[in-house]
Design a protein that fits this description.
By secondary structure, the chain is an all-alpha fold. Helices cover 73% and strands 0% of the residues. The chain has helices at 3-13, 18-24, 30-38, 45-55, 59-66, 69-73, 77-97. Helix 1 (3-13) packs across helix 3. The longest helix has 21 residues, at 77-97. The two termini are 24 Å apart. The model has no long low-confidence stretch (mean pLDDT 84).
Length: 98
């Protein structure tokens, strides 16, 4: 899973600075967001939920975006279709909101 790229991508898409994201997700400073985006720290689940709320993305969408392709290949067919549907809806939302 690549949380660093996902946080950076979603933050950039929302046109927020690291400090703005930190403020809206109740972190003391932008340093936490910087650490997450560089991969120097891995966010705990509660931090991910706060970041997702600030970026208007569900934790499920966040985790799916963070998955490496090889992670998804191991899913059964029904779950692959579910993931494809969620990613498609999320992709449309990101394109239309940009």
């Amino acid at each position: 899973m690549n949380f660093a790229k996902t946080i950076r991508h979603l933050r950039d898409n929302a046109k927020l600075t690291q400090q703005e994201l930190a403020n809206t997700s109740n972190f003391v400073s932008g340093t936490s967001i910087s650490q997450f985006e560089t991969g120097n720290a891995i966010p705990r689940f509660d931090a991910i939920v706060r970041i997702c709320t600030a970026l208007n993305v569900s934790p499920v969408e966040f985790y799916l975006l963070s998955c490496e392709p090889e992670d998804l290949y191991s899913l059964n067919t029904a779950r692959q279709k579910y993931v494809a549907g969620v990613v498609k809806r999320l992709g449309k939302r990101i394109v239309t909101e940009s």
